[in-house]
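Project standup — Tuesday

K.O.: blocked on the structure for the chain from last sprint. Re-posting the sequence here as requested.
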Amino acid sequence: MENQNWKIDQFCGDVVGVWIAYSSALLAWSSSVSDLDHVSNRKSLRSLMAKGPKPRVIGDRPLIRYATVAVSVLGLIISAYALYVEKRLHDDDTYKPLCDINEELRCSKALSSKYGYGFGFLGNALGPNHILNLPNTVYGIIFYILIALLGYARNAKASTVQLNLCFISVMVSGWLAYVLLFILDEKCPVCFATYAINAVLLLLSIFKGSPRLAEPRDAMGAIKKTDGDQATKKASVAPKESKSVPNVDRDSKTYTQATKQETKSKARRE
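H.V.: unblocked you, prediction finished:
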């Protein structure tokens, strides 16, 4: 049974590792792309934001952003309570938390088990005393703080990172739900609440989209040319000033011809 559980832990650890690598690669790719879509000249944008009103943000959904922050705060409160319960259970064996409703619905066994640390596989892979083998509730607190900050930001890169983190959290929640129901044979209300919150955050991340700054347009809908664009255009279109160089041979030849014509005209008059 222990060998079978170890194989399951190793498999789930590999799956989560693959998704973490995928998220890191996607984050690296998104960092090479501009944060502001459809804006090619950053200097022009900076000058526009400094001299005039800020450009309009398109794709922004304030209700989704506020809901993401509210749900993240709820998850943060639940994770903090679970961390408190876990610490009390570690210090006092007779402590009975409020989440222990009855013999079927209880959270004390799930939070105090080995699967409550390092998602159940970091301890086996890295060792029980490794720095990353922290309680799952600590990871939950860090996760919900990050999602609250990313969810409130009106930025395409932040939305990409938020979506990937929420997807990874749902994958980990699926693994922990399997452990809770089929390995520990427990029904933890606090755990179920965090799984539901992670699923809701994933849906909110999908509906949030990618907010971005729109190019400034005039009343007719045409894209405005900023000061930087106009200066660049004038510099590229302005012709080069040609300096006139005096031609001595040409001037002397013209003077000789004029002198000859004047001499001929005087001879005819005489």
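K.O.: great, moving the ticket to review. Confidence is low (pLDDT under 50) at residues 4-9, 26-45. The chain has ten helices and two strands.
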